[in-house]
Specification:
Elements lengths: L33 E6 L2 E6 L12 E5 L1 E3 L3 E5 L5 E9 L6 H5 L4 E9 L10 E7 L2 E13 L2 E8 L6 H8 L16 H4 L7 E4 L11 H9 L3 E8 L22 E3 L2 H10 L4 E3 L2 H25 L13
């Protein structure tokens, strides 16, 4: 008998991953990566650029167009010690992550802090950033300790710079914890999907990293449609699972944004193939259904009517 998901044991998902099987750097050509094919019980390999030939025509591929921000800030103390501030998500005073990213001069952020024991109360960390011929001074103040994070006040001397622009100048891309190397300048481009547009993630939606403009052209030629959602990958992706069972693991909320036109696309495609590119796209679609179901139940409760569950969130 299959156990309820909440009773799944984390130990059942433990496996050995040898260090020498983890690629430290990606291939120069994104679509030259190997593609695993499972078809009719047989496993074969191909190159990722051949993906469209394995997908049925008239499918809809759903992509997550979030963009990874340079969320790691390194501050060196006068003593030589380094304190790392990892910007996880904006403070709750901001209505959404876009507004927080557009803040100028000062922002409050939930962060992980490496070396926090060396950060004395009241001590202001300072970082000098070169931007052309000018210097920008970035300061960090330890504001509050929360469960699982710290609230850090970040302020910078150039009042015309948004926080997103400041991170681009001062921060480093947060590579996955299983890649044991320092981030390099090339990672700012390579650890992004080619269709990334919305700043806000602390990790890339990695299933999309192998797509290229050439693949998108091949998809179009085969009459395969594409659509985009935004889910900003949050703190949960970097926090290890410590609970023995799924039900005891703390799940972190993530911010999603979809257009009305996307939901209409889903409705029109509901009896055809809908293919989510990666887990972030999939859980966005699942969340839309759940939100729609909850709205429908609330409306039924208010009106005193009953009906079956919706096929998809209805837009009127």
């Amino acid at each position: 008998m299959t156990p309820h998901p909440r009773n799944l044991s984390i130990a059942d998902y433990t496996y050995d991953l040898p260090e020498d099987r983890i690629a430290k750097f990606p291939l120069e050509e994104r679509d030259a990566s190997r593609l695993l094919i499972y078809q009719n019980g047989v496993i074969t390999e191909d190159q990722y650029r051949q993906l469209p030939s394995y997908l049925p025509a008239d499918s809809l591929l759903v992509f997550n167009n979030t963009k990874v921000v340079e969320a790691r800030l390194l501050f060196q103390k006068a003593s030589g010690g380094v304190i790392e501030i990892f910007c996880l998500e904006p403070h709750e005073q901001y209505p959404d992550i876009t507004k927080a990213m557009l803040q100028k001069g000062k922002v409050f952020w939930h962060c992980l802090v490496g070396g926090v024991s060396k950060w004395k109360p009241g001590q202001v960390l300072e970082k000098k950033i070169k931007s052309g011929k000018r210097d920008i001074i970035l300061e960090a103040r330890y504001n509050e300790k929360r469960t699982g994070s710290f609230v850090i006040e970040l302020s910078w001397s150039d009042q015309d710079l948004s926080f997103a622009e400041l991170l681009h100048l001062a921060g480093a891309i947060p590579l996955p914890p299983y890649i044991k190397r320092a981030a390099e300048e090339s990672d700012k481009n390579r650890y992004q999907t080619v269709y990334a547009v919305q700043d806000g993630s602390v990790a890339a939606p990695t299933a999309g990293l192998h797509f290229t403009d050439a693949i998108f052209k091949s998809l179009e030629q085969k009459k395969i449609k594409t659509a985009f959602v935004t889910l900003h990958v949050g703190a949960g992706t970097f926090k290890p699972v410590k609970a023995d069972q799924m039900a005891d693991h703390e799940m972190h909320a993530e911010w999603i944004d979809v257009d009305r036109s996307f939901i209409i696309n889903l409705q029109e495609q509901i009896n055809k193939n809908i293919i989510a590119v990666g887990t972030t796209s999939l859980r966005t679609i699942e969340s839309l259904y759940w939100i729609g179901l909850k709205l429908m139940q609330a409306d039924q409760k208010h009106s005193g009517t009953n009906s079956k569950e919706p096929d998809l969130l209805t837009i009127s």
